[in-house]
Amino acid sequence: MSERRYWDExxxxxxxxxxxxxxxxxxxxxxxxxxxxxAFYRERLDRxxxxxxxxxxxxxxxxxxxxxxxxxxxxxxxxxxxxxYVVAPPQNLRxxxxxxxxxxxxxxxxxxxxxxxxxxxxxxxxxxQFGTRPGDIVQNAFSYGLWVAGLSVHYGAAKIGCLxxxxxxxxxxxxxxYLQSPGATVLIATPSYALYLAEALRERGxxxxxxxxxxxCFGGEAGAENAxxxxxxxxGLGIAAFDYYGLAExxxxxxxxxxxxxxxxxxxxxxxxxxxxxETKQPVPEGEVGVLVFTHLTRQATPMLRYWxxxxxxxxxxxxxCGRTHLRSPGGILGRHDDLVVYRGAKFYPVQVEKVVRSFPxxxxxxxxxxxxxxRLGSELVTVVxxxxxxxxxxxxxxxxxxxxxxxxxxxxVRLEPFGxxxxxxxxxxxxxxxxxxxx
Length: 440
Prior knowledge:
By secondary structure, the protein is an alpha/beta fold.
């Protein structure tokens, strides 16, 4: 079994025509069941004058309106707790996975029993794709909390036949211990954390060649397909490093690289992938950059029809040397459509920082978020800069750090400056200062 090249050879290597036929069948099934079982989708389609019978080809998906995360949040607030886009019956529901957003209000994603099985299967495919095999010891440093990728990796690795070390994010000293004994062979983490673990190994005096680790896949933030970051990870850990992608509303882990390291392969039999122009909402030509939009083809509980991801990428149908025929995105995720900050696998917006900073009477209303590169590691650093109104309180820095960690689910650097340091403006304040280009 460990010698086979593919997890599911027939599915991963079928012709584009065969795949399109399968996708079209599943798309029609999904639109029909969403129209019949979801008032949320039925109202949207009716407003557009679209009936399920109008979806006869994959191109017809363009007749459907896109769905944004804010619309999901509004729907769940208007019809708590899950909104009206839950299609599977309650007795089939098995797991709830909330995600956070601009206001911190979670968007609840539900998995049915069949969804758990499908997610496990295609996550196993993504793991196999970059080289995970039965008998591997998988050190899973993805979070097992609100960021659900840790759980899907756990399921997928177990299905392959691996020993899973479910350590989750953090506990760096323990991570280093496990890299040595029992000796993980596969590491799953964010790119930033991979670089941090490499630094921790150096501080311990542990040579990468002395541990069994042979490969890793890194997601939750951009970077693994950045040439300089990949080189640093590979040199620091002594491994081959691959890119991983997922989205809580779609699937936590449904695209990864293969040994060719030529872009992430999408699980197109489960998710229809489009790249749209952010302004016109029309498809861009193959190879051009646009916003990824996803449609569930097999999801039962909370299916998404044309979910607007806000992530920039490009698509190609060019054959990959690995033999897989599903779409690839060379370079992975290329950026964001808005000012979302992604740091060590967590995602937050300036309004959440504003909420915290302005809750401290010792601070002014002004703040800034600085994005920079650590000159030693090449990893990203996020610093929240705030102004103190009074003489420094020795506890203020730590209290602010704790409050930010609780709100953002990640711990940024904090710098307190004297009052009047930050620029004032009568127009829109520039809350994010990108210094990453200065470090190159």
